[in-house]
Amino acid sequence: MSSNTPGQGGGRYVAPIEETPVVAVDAVDESQKAQSVWGDAWQAMRKRWLFWLCAALIAVIVVVALFPQWFTASLPTGGACKIGQSLDPASAGHPLGFDKQGCDVFSRILYGTRSSVTVGLLATLLATLIGGIIGALAGFYGGFLDSLVSRLGDIFFAIPTILGAIIVMQVMPWDRNAITLSIVLAVFGWPIIARIMRGAVLTAKNSDYVMASVALGLSRSKILLGHVIPNALAPVIVIATVSLGTYIVAEASLSFLGIGLPPSIPSWGGDISTAQGSIRQAPELIFFPATALAITVLAFLLLGDIVRDALDPKARARR
Amino acid sequence: MNATPLIELDDVRVAFTGGGLRRTKTEVLHGVSLDIRPGETHGLVGESGSGKTTIGRAILGLVPLESGSIRFRGERIDGLRGTRRRALATQVQVVFQDPYTSLNPSLTIGDTLAEPLRAQGMGLADARRRIRELLDAVALPSGAADRLPREFSGGQRQRVAIARALAIRPALIVCDEAVSALDLTTQRTVLELLLSIQKETGVSYLFISHDLSVVRHMSHRVSVIYRGDIVESGDAAVVTSAPSHPYSRKLLLSAPVVDPAAQAERRRQFESEFAGARR
Fold this sequence. Notes:
The complex is a heterodimer of chains A (about 325) and B (about 280).
Chain A: H1 22-25, H2 37-46, H3 49-66, H4 105-141, H5 143-158, H6 161-171, H7 178-205, H8 208-215, H9 220-256, H10 268-277, H11 284-311, H12 313-318
Helix pairs in contact in A: 2-11, 3-4, 3-11, 4-5, 4-7, 4-9, 4-11, 5-7, 6-7, 7-9, 8-9, 9-10, 9-11, 10-11
Chain B: E1 7-17, E2 25-36, E3 41-45, H1 52-60, E4 67-72, E5 75-76, H2 82-88, E6 92-95, H3 109-119, H4 124-137, H5 154-166, E7 172-176, H6 184-201, E8 204-209, H7 212-218, E9 221-226, E10 229-235, H8 236-241, H9 246-254, H10 260-273
Helix pairs in contact in B: 3-4, 5-6
Organism (chain A): Mycetocola reblochoni
Family (chain A): Belongs to the binding-protein-dependent transport system permease family.
Pfam families (chain A): BPD_transp_1, OppC_N
């Protein structure tokens, strides 16, 4: 058999290889510092003043939630509330006056931050963990597990989070507190995260680099953890940041309806509900917790927006 | 035959099951046989949808066979699962067409190259040394290891993908349209790189392409695949310059040449041979 020797002649004209060595034609530009995915997102975020405003607001909110006693000497509940002070105007040490129960409004708002932030963070964390794990497994392994999880998700999807939470909180035999409330909200909130994680995992799973890893002989669990999840995480983080704000709203709504946190735990939703009763005598009382709620939710929603812009360069290019 | 084949496909059939209730099967390879010898490049040409990529994937064990067999050094490798399949990964590797999707965007080049080495149980220090060697072999600076894929051009990424395939010193690399996404100059340099690596390491290539001139440049032997059948197979010089099967001739005459006079001649020949069958 006559053998052909490769490398001799080509079908078309290209400059001789001696004149165009690979190092010269396609040199690596090493003048720039090496980048990283999250480092890049950080670079994009730090240039925007809105990011710093949100970050500052959230920092203040978190500090208040952790140490409300640093900002006020009065306690928001129990013996500190004297019915004799009911609807008393502002005085020294009590800058926002007293509510109908005779509790210090400023103190109640500061201590109420803790409920909102705890429920927001905990519910988001739980929903992201549950939804993320379930979505990733469903998307990656597919088959029966995927069908089961998708239909289960559909069922939960059909029930509005608030409605589901109202029913469960009504009949729940356990104590109502920030932890049980967060669990209930997460139980109804995980399908959104699961669906997004599943989609992102499906995209990553069918990419060539996963094929290459299969060909390299990596085990499935290593591929899932090393290649698929890191590339599917960005959209989930964005949704999680945005949903933090919505969980805070959900907590306030439930507490307003009287089935969220009990009156013994200060909560903005509960305060709005109390202030509603005295809206003719002291309309400003409804304004304070509502403003606190609006600012907190806005800060988290805007941060979610900024994170999305930073992690999704396509959205950035459109502005 | 002057050498025992490294890999041997015998009457390989592959079918894909469609979705829906009826689950109709579509056969994409109708009994393909070919063999690749050690240190040889076997070119595989054919149009889109002809099944050339499927052949590569079947060798890599990424698609199941309907019937037929694939032997590697005489041992059957089709249908292998788990650890034995993974052991084969040290012997057969792949370079994909699109260098923009074949590298994990969130891993640095160093991590991407370390993965196959670590999967074979190599220590950290040894792996690092090997990565430097590999980057050197594909003419990339060692500083590239700390960078992410998106900082590199298409040609550079393809060189990284080649380095990854080389990492564990395989006996065969499936190059699935490995240069088709690159511009001509880069294409040429990557092809030269593949040839020099073959000269040094004696690796075999299954070189899949739709580009006849690239296949001619690279291959010892060439098979032409058309709609799931190998219609012509033989010495590269013969198949790519004087093919006997009508489809191979059509493929040859469809490829444009630089010289206008030669191109006019080619067009005339095409028309006379395939009158009324214009593409």
